[in-house]
Amino acid sequence: MVLLVATGILLVLSGAAVTTAVIGVILLAPIIIITRPIWVPVGIFLFFSVATVLSICGVGLAAAAVLVVQLLIKGGDAR
Length: 79
What we know:
Elements: H1 2-34, H2 36-73
């Protein structure tokens, strides 16, 4: 019985979420289409900015890992 009630509640909540998302897209679509010339360059800039930061972090993490491995190979303490 509890499972049936929980399933019903989740079904209602998921339906409300989907309905809200669809109504939001319908209402915001004209604004998004009109301001598209602004959002496309902003999106491209944000994409490349995030990609650059993540790449730099990845290179730094790889360099730190290489240093730790070199230290362990030489017999030192990695702490």
